[in-house]
Amino acid sequence: MHPASAFRWEDREAMRALVTERGFGTLFVATPDGPRVAHVPVVWLGEATLGLHLARGNGIVRHLDGATAVFVVQGPDGYISPDWYGLGADQVPTWNYVAIELEGRMRRMEQDALVAQVDAISAEQEARLAPKAPWTRNKMDGALFDRMTRGIVGFTLEVQAWRGTRKLGQNKPEAARLAAAEGAEASGRRGIADWMRSV
Questions:
Q1: What are the start-end ranges of the E strands in 16-151?
Q2: Helix (H) / strand (E) containing 141
Q3: Among the listed residues 94, 54, 52, the one whose alpha carbon sits nearest the alpha carbon of residue 77
Q4: Burial per residue of 174-195, b for 16 or more beta-carbon CB atoms within 10 angstroms, e otherwise
Q5: Does residue 198 sit within a domain?
Q6: Strand pairing class (68-80; 49-55)
Q7: Which of 34, 121, 148, 168 is the most exposed place for a label (fewest CB within 10 A)?
């Protein structure tokens, strides 16, 4: 994460909320074959427990149970032009962003826990699609659902370290940061602009 203390983010509830909002991220693990990465959907199963799943054929699967891994969620980001600050010529371009790293121990799930995880992810995501009637596995043939879920493997990540960065121009005067937020929004980066205005 960014080494500057001005950008350190330690609000775990806010980080949990961003993970929930995004619902997807990147899992990193060291293996005997070298570093490996997987892109996975996630759901909170407890205060510091994430549930995730991968295709059974994904080569990373055989290395996960018991491993220490890092799960990364990327929030909004955007290029910041030095011209936007209104502070004169001696400014440099930068990139503002929000990101979370969650480090912890991976544990393989039993099949019934995997099914519950799929149900939880679906329920969380389907709720966002209202007023559409939510999809549930009851809409599928039970045998087909069982075959489909046997093609994936579920894991939990017990989070032991939370590392967050909110690099939003906090090191600039407020007027300059807000001016840069306007520039970011005008360039199509409304997400990072909104975060820049919120600090």
A1: 24-31, 34-46, 49-55, 68-80, 94-108
A2: none
A3: 94
A4: eebbbbbbebbbeeebeebbeb
A5: no
A6: unpaired
A7: 34
Helices 174-186, 190-198: axis angle to 10 degrees equals 160
Q: What confidence tens digit (pLDDT) does each residue in 76-104 have?
A: 999 999 999 999 889 999 999 999 999 99
Domain that holds residue 108: 5-193
* Residues in the chain, total: 199
The one-letter amino acid code at 130 reads A
List, in sequence order, the alpha helices (H) in the chain: 12-22, 61-64, 111-127, 142-149, 174-186, 190-198
Total tally of structural domains belonging to the chain: 1
Residue 125 is assigned to a structural domain of this protein: yes
- Tracing tokens 């360039």 back to the chain, one arrives at 187
Q: Which CATH number belongs to the domain containing residue 166 in this structure? A: 2.30.110.10
Q: For residue range 118-172, what is the model confidence (pLDDT) as tens digits? A: 999 999 999 999 999 999 999 999 999 999 999 999 999 999 999 999 999 999 9
Please check whether residue 32 lies inside any domain of the structure.
yes
For tokens 């790293």, the residue is 101
Helix (H, G, I), strand (E, B) or coil at 131: coil
**Residue among 53, 41, 195 nearest 124 (CA):** 41
Domain-embedded: residue 19: yes
pTM: 0.93
